[in-house]
Amino acid sequence: DPTPPRRVLVISARMGAGHMGVARELAERLHRDGHVTEVVDFLDALPRPFGRAMETLYRLQLRYAPWSYDVLYRLRFRFSSAWDSVNAFYTALAGSSLLRWVQSYESDVVLALYPLAATVVGRLRDQERLDVPAATFITDFGVHPLWVHPGIDLHLCVHPVAAAEAARRSGGAVAATGPVVRPDFDGAESRRAVGRQLLGVGDNDRVVLVTGGSWGIGEVERTARAVAHSGRFLPVVLCGQDQGLRDRLDSEGIRAFGWTDQVPSLVAAADALVDNAGGLSCMEAFASGTPVVTFRPIAGHGRHNASVMSRAGVSRYPRTERGLLKALDELTGDTPARAEAVARGRSLFLGDAMKELLGLAR
C-alpha cells in the first residue's frame, strides 16, 4: 500500500565513514519517496568536549593501541550486564538531547545507526521516555551487545546470520534486509571499463583493491606489499584521509588513492577487494560483484566481522600471506570460486530496509 509521508530521525556517528555513509543513502532514498529525514550525529548529543574526546580516543586506540580497543570490545560480551551503569551514564549524558531532536523534528520513527546510540535509544524506549517506534540498522555482520536492546522495536540486519544473533540477544523483532549502499555500486560493466581505464590496466591485469577504511587504519602497507611482491597481482590502495600512508606507498611504486569520488569505478574495476574491517567497503564490493577477502583485520569489530562473514560464506578470511595469495588466485580468475563469491555477495540485496522502517512508523 502507498505509504503517507513520514518523518524519520536517523542517529548516526562520525566514527569512520561507514555509519554516515549508510545514513546518507537511507536519507536520500526516503527523500526520493517523499519522506522527510533528519540525520544527526550521536556525538553531538553528548557534552561537546566529551563527544570530541570519544572520537579522538577511538582513532588513537585503533592506530596506536588496538589491543586496548580489543579488550574493551570483548569485555562487553563477557560481562554485558555489568555495563548497565555505563549505559545508564551515556543515557544520562545524551538522552535529553536525543528526545529534544525527536520532538523538534516531529519524528514518526527513530533509526539508530551507531551501536552506542542503539543502546541509549533502547533504554529511552524501555523507560517510556521515547514514545515513537525505534529501530536499529546493524551494519556489521558481527553483532556487538551495544547494537541490540529489548526496548528497540525492530533490529534490521545485513544477513540472516546477524539477524539470528540479534534475535537471540534482544529477544525482539528482527529483519534481514541486506546492506544499504549507493546505487552507483551496481556492478555495471560500463563502470568497470571506466575504472580500468582510470587505472590504465589491461584486460589480463588482475587488480586487487586494498582498503583500510576512511582513516587508513591497520596493516594496510604490509598487505599491499605482500600483494605486490607476489608478482601476480596489481595492488591499488585506498588510503582514505591518511596522506602519510599514500605518500609511503607512492614512494614504493604502489598505486594509491587518497580521498576520492572515484570509489565506485575503482571497486568495479577490481578483480577482488582486500579489506580489514568488514564495513561499508565490503558491502559496496558485494553490490559491485567484486569478491571480498578479509586479511589482518583490525581489532574488535574487524576481527568479529571477519569471522562471521567467513562463516556466512560471503568472504574469505586467510590467516597467512600464503593463504591470502591462494585466495586471490582463486577469486581473480574466471573460476567457479569467483562466480560463487559474486553470487553470494549479490544475493544479500534482497530485502528493503526502508520498507521495514516505514512499516514500523505506520
Instruction: List low-confidence stretches.
Output: none
Helix/strand class: alpha/beta
Spatial order of the strands forming the largest sheet: 2-1-3-4-5-6
Distance between the termini: 11 Å
Residue share in helix: 40-55%
Give the total of beta strands. 11
What's the Cα radius of gyration? 20 Å
Highlighted features:
five-stranded parallel β-sheet; globular; alpha/beta; six-stranded parallel β-sheet; 15 helices; 362 residues
What does this entry look like structurally?
The chain has 362 residues and is α/β, with parallel strands linked by helices. The chain has 15 helices and eleven strands. It has a six-stranded parallel β-sheet with strand order 2-1-3-4-5-6, with helices on both faces. A five-stranded parallel β-sheet has the order 9-8-7-10-11, sandwiched between helices. Helix 1 (18-32) links the parallel strand 1 and strand 2 (36-41). It is globular. The N and C termini lie close together (11 Å). The mean pLDDT is 93.
Short précis:
The chain has 362 residues and is of the alpha/beta class. The protein has 15 helices and eleven strands. It is 49% helix and 13% strand.
SSE layout and pairings?
Blueprint: E1 7-12, H1 18-32, E2 36-41, H2 48-64, H3 66-78, H4 84-104, E3 109-112, H5 115-126, E4 134-138, E5 154-157, H6 160-170, E6 174-176, H7 189-199, E7 207-211, H8 220-229, E8 234-238, H9 243-251, E9 255-257, H10 263-269, E10 272-275, H11 280-288, E11 292-294, H12 301-312, H13 321-331, H14 336-346, H15 353-361
Parallel strand pairs: 1-2, 1-3, 3-4, 4-5, 5-6, 7-8, 7-10, 8-9, 10-11
Helix pairs in contact: 2-3, 4-5, 7-10, 11-14
